[in-house]
Inverse folding.
């Protein structure tokens, strides 16, 4: 919900119907034009109806109905040559998850891997936090992240765990001709021991200021930029 998010959903084909505040139609002409061009039904309703549908979320006068988010199979993420992936080790905060998805889409990541349990999923809060980028993200849910990383390593994919105490800086990582997966630990505990042990490299982000650590989504954005540049 919200203008930017509905536009992203229309562009990606995930929005199936649009509801607009009848008093805001003139301010939402770009949304209405996109919806009509896509052949979608547009309903002009009272603001109270939108408020009831949105709950505590801000809707900015427009809400889109969407089909359930389509998660991908891991094989789909690996269908490209030398894939760039990001794996999230128990990232549970929806705002961090949304911000990570936005960075992943912005830097051309081929897919995001999340564990089945103790992980955020795609919800309206995540869609909003990603500024609609979640509608373009390719996300696979796996039962066991450690096992998945081991399988990727067998395919010679480079497994890079982000760690403030890592033994190499991001810009000094060796080439990854068969692909790379950036592994990000949880907001509080970082990488779990077994996940850490699956990593080919533990990489740190050089910092010169007095801050000792970075937010998970900020660190991921930096790492994905560097991985995209190196690619």
């Amino acid at each position: 919900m919200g203008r930017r998010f509905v536009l992203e959903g229309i562009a990606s084909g995930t929005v199936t119907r649009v509801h607009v505040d009848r008093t805001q139609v003139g301010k939402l002409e770009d949304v209405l034009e996109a919806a009509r061009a896509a052949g979608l039904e547009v309903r002009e309703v009272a603001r109270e109806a939108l408020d009831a549908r949105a709950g505590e979320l801000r809707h900015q006068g427009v809400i889109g109905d969407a089909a359930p988010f389509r998660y991908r199979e891991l094989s789909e993420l690996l269908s490209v040559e030398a894939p760039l992936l990001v794996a999230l080790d128990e990232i549970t905060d929806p705002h961090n998850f949304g911000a990570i998805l936005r960075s992943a889409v912005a830097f051309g990541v081929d897919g995001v891997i999340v564990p089945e349990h103790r992980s955020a999923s795609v919800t309206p809060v995540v869609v909003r936090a990603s500024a609609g980028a979640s509608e373009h993200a390719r996300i696979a849910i796996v039962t066991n992240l450690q096992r998945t990383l081991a399988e990727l390593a067998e395919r010679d994919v480079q497994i890079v765990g982000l760690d403030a105490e890592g033994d190499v800086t991001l810009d000094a990582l060796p080439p990854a001709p068969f692909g790379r997966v950036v592994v990000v630990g949880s907001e509080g505990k970082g990488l779990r021991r077994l996940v850490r042990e699956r990593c080919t490299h533990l990489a740190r982000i050089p910092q010169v200021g007095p801050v000792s650590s970075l937010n998970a989504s900020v660190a991921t954005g930096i790492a994905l930029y560097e991985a995209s540049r190196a690619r």
Notes: The domain at 74-230 is CATH 3.40.1280.10 (Alpha/beta knot). The mean pLDDT is 90. The radius of gyration is 19 Å.
